[in-house]
Amino acid sequence: MSNHKTVSVHIVTYNSADDIGECLTAVLGQDYPIHSVVVVDNASADGSAARVSGFYRGVEEQSTLDYSDTDSIVQTTLSRTSLPKLVLINNKANTGFAPAHNQAIAATDTDYVLVLNPDLTLAPDYVSRLVSLMEGNTKIGSATGKLLLKADSSLVDSTGLRMNKARRAFDRGAGEPAADWMESGAVFGVSGAAAMYSRRMIEDISVDGEFFDGDFFAYKEDVDVAWRAQLFGWQAYYDAEAAGYHERGWKTSGRGGKSMFIRRISYINRYKMIYKNEPARTLPLTLIYALPYELAAHAYMLLKEPGLIKAWSSFRAQRASLKRKRRYIQEKAANKNN
After folding, report:
1. Alpha carbons 132 and 69: distance in angstroms, whole number
2. Residues with Cβ within 8 Å of residue 300, at least 6 apart in sequence
3. What does DSSP say about strands 185-187 and 112-116: parallel, antiparallel, or unpaired?
4. What is the pTM of this model?
5. In this structure, which CATH number among 3.30.70.260, 3.10.20.310, 3.40.50.1000, 3.90.550.10 belongs to the domain 7-252?
6. Which residue, among 259, 258, 322, 263, has the nearest Cα to 297 in the 3D structure?
7. Cα 95 to Cα 1: distance, rounded to the nearest angstrom
8. How many whole angstroms separate alpha carbon 43 and alpha carbon 136?
């Protein structure tokens, strides 16, 4: 195993006690050796961190993980020597998805990092397929498999990210039959639900020492990374044979089920992303394409969700930081393309 590229799995928990056991079972069931599992708990109130610790203690005391009573997709046998190192970081406050994953990245030095949601269960060959793919083409800095809905695995959750000309990002294939997405290939980017990133790319595209933009807190941070990576010459890839199963609770609950705080950060992060990443030469055309959507969306917002407008206060507060990041990104992208 000494010649294997090392892989760490990074999971951020926030009230994830109901999901984390099945998620970790699937991680330990991978047919590729996992160097370490990093769990960053963002001040959960449901005992998520204790559940992680208890899970690991249980594994150390037995050789077989049996989660058949929880409808787990994975059952695996381990030896104690094959157990990945656990790094459990307990934050005293909810720092957000992006900053917490930056903590996990800083705590590891593995060749590859798998960013994983706690409500996602991986097929046993998920890691091995993606590592093999990325080792075969070092220009690929990020990869994903076919993420399916746990509630109905015949339907797609995500096969990567796509972005339209108005700079709106979507999960490719979301809600469509999985049978329609059998072809692997290049994509704009990968969903942060189960994203494999190479350390080479992480180091190359980080800004101010951050891979994910800490100003985003959560939502669209994976799209922001995908856009920045593309500007710097990296490729993203979708492997149709690597499978994962996602609960995807927040997207299926509808807008009414989300707090105003969540809706505000999801809304404003799109504009932060455009401000940083849109090259000056393409901005006029993007504005033309985006204008119909912007007029319709903001008319709806003013009528139905006027509270969203307060999200611009965070943009103004972070303007200097965003401007500095934009300058760095655009200058480095220009140098890469010369």
Report:
1. 33
2. none
3. unpaired
4. 0.91
5. 3.90.550.10
6. 263
7. 36
8. 39
Q: What is the pLDDT of residues 249-306, one digit of tens each?
A: 544 444 455 788 889 999 999 999 999 999 999 999 999 999 999 999 999 999 999 9
Burial 86-105 (b: 16+ CB within 10 A, else e): bbeebbeebbbbbbbbbbbb
Give the other-Cβ count within 10 Å of 289's Cβ: 14
Closest C-alpha among 313, 200, 219, 194 to residue 273: 219
Among 66, 92, 84, 87, which residue's Cα sits nearest to residue 30? 84
112-116 and 7-13 beta bridge pairing: parallel
What are the pLDDT digits (tens) for 148-170? 999 999 999 999 999 999 999 99
Q: Could you count the other beta carbons within 10 Å of the beta carbon of residue 307?
A: 12
The two structure tokens encoding residue 77: 């046998």
How many CA within 13 A on the CB side of residue 306?
Answer: 2
Beta pairing class for 36-42 and 7-13: parallel
Instruction: Give the separation between CA 338 and CA 332, rounded to whole angstroms.
Output: 10
Dist. CA 130–CA 312, nearest whole Å: 38
- Domain spans, the chain: 7-252, 255-337
